[in-house]
Amino acid sequence: MSAPLPLPVRVLVKGASTVNWVSFMGGPRTDFIFPRVIEQQLLAQGRPADVETRSMTSQRASTVLRTWQSEVLGFSPDVIVLVYGHYETIHLFLPRWLEVHANSLRARPRRLSALYRRAVLRPVWKLLAQAQARLDTILDPTLRRGRPRQVAADLRQYIDHVQEVGSPLVYVFELLPPGTRFQSWFPGMARRIEVMNATLEAMVAEVGLDHVRYLRVADLVELHAGGDVDVAIPDGFHYSPAMHRHVGERLADDIAAWAETQPHLSASVRGAETS
Fold it and tell me: Residue 170 phi/psi, 5° resolution?
């Protein structure tokens, strides 16, 4: 009888475009987003892996509570990676529906639609964004203080729910401030990011579980990009291919070490079963 196959580590990665977008897009197929790097690295270590990514651009943290049952109850992930709170720090007042509409990648190639987007939508959006940028230099950038608290509350509720499905390892990401090219468009965003990060880190500390962890991405920027955010996120928002790789490798190593403490995944237990 052949030896039984080991169980794969099941990993669920969730978030907005920080997860699914590479700075810049259009490169070779080896420009992996970090969930794919996690899968690659675990397999390279000889550890089976089943990595699922559920990600949408401009996705808010509030969506996690609407989808957690369909994504978690059946799949029963060993590891969950949460990258949320970034979108909530971008705009001071512009509504999400307008931002999504103005920057949609789903517009159909129709003459009237193209004319509307070129002659009406884009000019109006640019005018409103410029007005927002001016206000962002005058008003308190953290004026809407309820946003980070609500993001943390939604993620805390999600974490509480999923801990009842086999106590998975959970990562909550630190967020990077915008790069130089977007600082003039969103002058208050860096300060909002600071508040969001502090709120998320405090939430993780409040949970108080060793397997619910806050991932410090700035440490990886310091280590691999000399502390230069513009190197880590060249387009101003999203990880470069190299930074995606560094994030994925960091997570894969941490996940592999944690898996060795889990009876259903550890190499020592698998070895005993096959001896």
Answer: -125, 135
